[in-house]
Integrin alpha FG-GAP repeat containing 1 (Podarcis lilfordi), 487 residues
Amino acid sequence: MRAPCCCRPRSGLPFPPFLIFFSSLLVRARPGWALQNVTSQLFGNQAYGTLAAFGDFNSDKQTDLFVLRGDGELNIFLADQKEPYFKPKVKLLLTNVVITSVVPGDYDGDSQMDVLLTTRPQKQPNADLSVLIFWGNNQTLDVNRKFVLNKTFHDEPLIMDFNGDLIPDVFGATSDSDKPQVLLGRNLSWHIALDTQKKLYTPHSHAFIDLNNDFTADLFLTTLAPPNEIQFEIWVNQDGNFSKATHMKRKPKDVKVVGQSVFADFDGDGQTEHLLPACADSACQKSVIYLSKPGLDSWFPVLQNFTYKGTLWGFVPYDSAQTNFSFPITLHIGDYNMDGYPDALAILKNTSGSNQQAFLLENVECNEASCAGARRMFKVYWELSDLNQIKDAVVATFFDIYEDGILDIIVLSKDSTKTELAIHTLKNNFEADAYFVKVIVLSGLCSNDCPRKITPFGVNQPGPYIMYTTVDANGYLKNGSGKTYFC
Ligand SMILES: *[C@@H]1O[C@H](CO)[C@@H](O)[C@H](O)[C@H]1NC(C)=O
Ligand SMILES: *[C@@H]1O[C@H](CO)[C@@H](O)[C@H](O)[C@H]1NC(C)=O
Ligand SMILES: *[C@@H]1O[C@H](CO)[C@@H](O)[C@H](O)[C@H]1NC(C)=O
Ligand SMILES: *[C@@H]1O[C@H](CO)[C@@H](O)[C@H](O)[C@H]1NC(C)=O
Ligand SMILES: *[C@@H]1O[C@H](CO)[C@@H](O)[C@H](O)[C@H]1NC(C)=O
Ligand SMILES: *[C@@H]1O[C@H](CO)[C@@H](O)[C@H](O)[C@H]1NC(C)=O
Ligand SMILES: *[C@@H]1O[C@H](CO)[C@@H](O)[C@H](O)[C@H]1NC(C)=O
Ligand SMILES: *[C@@H]1O[C@H](CO)[C@@H](O)[C@H](O)[C@H]1NC(C)=O
Ligand SMILES: *[C@@H]1O[C@H](CO)[C@@H](O)[C@H](O)[C@H]1NC(C)=O
């Protein structure tokens, strides 16, 4: 099992690289809106491997793709002006280990993108994870220019900016301590991160995100209270210190399987809501997506009807023992139709068959009593052409392939006759009279006087939060917000 793009426990970006968000005025979907397969234009014959992260590796203001192949091979596909638009140009090969995740970032503050990899020994799916940081150097990676962390992690670490110095830090439960540890970037020194005895839940779904709208990222943790009860805690960032969580939110009653928490302004009021995909039974015959508001305990189902034309669909339970591409239950969020409300992508399986597919969940006004408290709900597109042709999908995420403000879709699928995942890219032909705002967050550590004369541009940055107010076509004010968060 390893980290697909933007996937949660296996740290990556839930959003493409920098902070990109969209808002809209007049939105009109063209009739016959569809998704178009553009895989070969993008990748040629190289559309395989686990797409694990996004980031602008060579500072050309275009997003590059980080793809894992085999056990220990990282390929960076650099964006190009000519077809195929992504070409594998930078390669790093590690031996005797399995790379489980990739997190690009500037870990030493020289404004060049470095690449953090987590690895475990081959044939030991339950071993602790080692963490290595390969230093970016003139847009290449050298297997010998690296820093190896001298502690191992029980789970994928969370990449966050713990001390607010704009340099990403590495947070998680290490093998030598009961308390979560953090390795501070640049200093590369270890510190006890939080004063808590609670066990962090594995696979983790922690997040570094502003949850109280003070423009400072807080720490959201999923922990285990005795006896193994999953709960959620928010450590609020107060003047740079994470203050001990005083309130624990329990998981919804009757929930047996908990997926990865994700955060979005679901009803467009400027506040961030917590979305939780879950199942009422261990086989996920009864799946539900819940929503809750920060600080409140109630959970509202925003999707609970998974039946279509006699087939009952459900989330795919995560099996950590199965090494063949089992991923935690995850929603990937993005506003595909530019109506200002976040939509989602989910992987569901036919509960009586074996096929699993990616589905688009549209955020629509709530028309059922159960979701009234959430104001909005999800409607599933059960028959979305080209998305439903991809069999055995394992990951689906939004990505603005053409950098035109419209979110396209990337799907990874497995094929039992092949050892690598197949990469599919679907262009969103949505046409709308809408505007979009793209915000790129820079660390600001240097601008024109950077060390070694490098061009700084948009190295992935954890935690920023932006809020904006727009006026809609009817003259009403609408709040929106955008954020990147690492997970
Ligand atoms: C960086 O690499 C390019 C070619 O890859 C080379 O032309 C250039 O001299 C290198 N710069 C430095 C500072 O090493
Ligand atoms: C990091 O290193 C700098 C200089 O090397 C030092 O001044 C600073 O105190 C260190 N910070 C921490 C948190 O160790
Ligand atoms: C681990 O590395 C840190 C620096 O990152 C160093 O201070 C410490 O002594 C090392 N510990 C061991 C056991 O080598
Ligand atoms: C944050 O924590 C540090 C170290 O524990 C302490 O010295 C400092 O006063 C705290 N700051 C605030 C604003 O609480
Ligand atoms: C579930 O949705 C389907 C169509 O998507 C509908 O036919 C069916 O009546 C719904 N079931 C319930 C219990 O609402
Ligand atoms: C996992 O993959 C191996 C070979 O790649 C195959 O033999 C095995 O049947 C697969 N297991 C499952 C559960 O799909
Ligand atoms: C789900 O699986 C059952 C059993 O294999 C099959 O009869 C049914 O057609 C499948 N549904 C869909 C939509 O593929
Ligand atoms: C998309 O196009 C590629 C390359 O032409 C092809 O291999 C793949 O099967 C297509 N995918 C779908 C879902 O049609
Ligand atoms: C937008 O946010 C501001 C500041 O939080 C708040 O005062 C205002 O009522 C909000 N407006 C709407 C339409 O939600």
